[in-house]
Amino acid sequence: MRKIRLLLTFILLIAVITLLVGCNILNDLIKEGGGNAPLSKLLDKTAQEDTVEVTTESQQTEQTVKLYFADADGKVLIEENRTIPKTLSLARETVSQWLLGPAGKSSAYPMVNPQTVLLDIGIKNGIATVDLSKEFLEPYSNVSAETALYGLVNTLTQFQTAQIVKIRVEGQDIQTYRGIGLENLRYRNDLIGYASGTVQDDEVTAEVSPSGINLFGQ
User: How far apart are CA 13 and CA 25, in angstroms?
Assistant: First the structure.
């Protein structure tokens, strides 16, 4: 019998404590909304206090890349440093800038037919595979085949993830480029004459028409 009374006393004590806590919550609700505030308002207030607002600030970053063009005789590579907006597809944008040609104040010359279009590009296992339109195969001005070819190869292999370049034309693998074999195309330092300085991408002139360039591929 004594145990039953102790149990009832304990239950009553718990009930009183619960009632007092409930009254405090109710008082808060009454103070908040003049007696008309719903319980969800208090719960929402608590949730807001526990939430930390996170803000992100977008920053425009830039990247300087090296582009290799021809000299006046078409036999030596001239290195041009170009500053472009940083992008997720840096290799794609770099080749697109190469196809646009050198800056107007540069002493370098374009390498390939300005109608050449970048169709696709990818880098995997150290191999950069670039797919260009058929205009790439056409001789352009007095630029030698070797200079034009390694202008592209050196431009691509400046990236640590690309050691070898593989070239496709209109989606098809090609074995030669104007009589030059395309096996194991790697960076060649011996063809580089000199550097022409650094330019911003907005300094590139319309000498090579941007209308013939596909910046995003298909």
Answer: 19
Distance CA 152, CA 116 (A): 12
Sheet holding 62-70, edge to edge: 62-70, 77-85, 192-200
3-state class of 35 per DSSP? Answer: coil
What is the crossing angle of helices 39-50 and 2-33, to 10°?
80
- Beta pairing, strands 77-85 & 172-173: unpaired
* Cα 163 to Cα 98: distance, rounded to the nearest angstrom: 18
pTM, entire model: 0.64
The Cα–Cα gap between 101 and 91 comes to 16
Residue 48: HSE in the Cβ half-sphere, 13 Å Cα cutoff: 6
How many residues in total does the chain contain?
A: 218
Q: Furthest-apart CA pair in the chain: how many Å?
A: 114
**DSSP assigned state of 121:** E
What pLDDT, in 10s, does the model give residues 88-131? Answer: 789 999 999 999 999 887 789 999 999 999 999 999 999 999 99
Q: Is the dihedral of CA 124, 125, 128, 134 positive or negative?
A: negative
Helix (H) or strand (E) holding 90: helix 90-100
